[in-house]
Amino acid sequence: MSDSKTGAGLPVILLHALPLDSSMWDESARALRARGHRVLSIDQRGFGGTPLPADAAPSLDLVADGLALELDRRGLDSAVVVGCSMGGYTAMSFLRRHPHRVRALALFASRCTADTPEGTAARLRFADLISDDSLRARIVMDTTSSLLGATTRAQQPRLLAQVTALAQTAGPHSVAWAQRAIAAREASLAALSTTDVPAVVVHGEEDELVTVDESRETAAALSRGRLVTLPRVGHLAPLEAPGKTVEILTGLLAVAQASCPGGAKAC
Q1: If both were cysteines, with which of 41, 69, 153, 159 could 22 make a disulfide (CB 3.0 to 4.6 Å apart)?
Q2: pLDDT surpassing 70 at residue 213
Q3: Whether CATH 3.40.50.1820 fits 2-266
Q4: What span, in angstroms and rounded, lies between the C-alpha atoms of 79 and 265?
């Protein structure tokens, strides 16, 4: 986890995708800090050295409540919450449980619905397989490429290698715990439909895991939400299109700051 305590802009929380860690946000975090924002890049439970909960059933609500405690520890009443994939699901859980602490919301490659029974079964099966030492390396190699769009895979082989290396480094028990937590998550449609903060939903045109219809549904649920589709981008826009990601977040922060000119504590 990294944090910059300087800057007068609204605090920003960046939540990473599975099976990566907070380093996926490094370029975005540097750019936002340069624009005067306090940025917290959070390693979710089990990643980046953050331990898994002891004897707790996998749950993104538990992760979200831990995030609220982290804000308390840092003296922050609220923040702009940004999540990609698993990070988006954590962000929506945080919104459900702590709505007054969300000043604006950005969801990358996330759907607002719960998994279908088939999707749940697939996640649970993956969680079992990734814990098998004899199968892990092949599973990582077989699944990592789907995190990036076809254009990225063809034109940015170094990024594919970087994402694969991060996936190989992730602890199998942490990945399994996270998959089970995602499989158990609630639908967030009701929470999104009752929130009234600036919001953006970002969809990669070449995302092989979340469809554009699912992204449209998520954006439509937000009264102040809008959908941004990025061409030639897959599931990990912060890595595949960091410049566009910063541009989108800067625009969202400007709207949120205008709605809250005295800063987070004033809202």
Answers
A1: 41
A2: yes
A3: yes
A4: 9
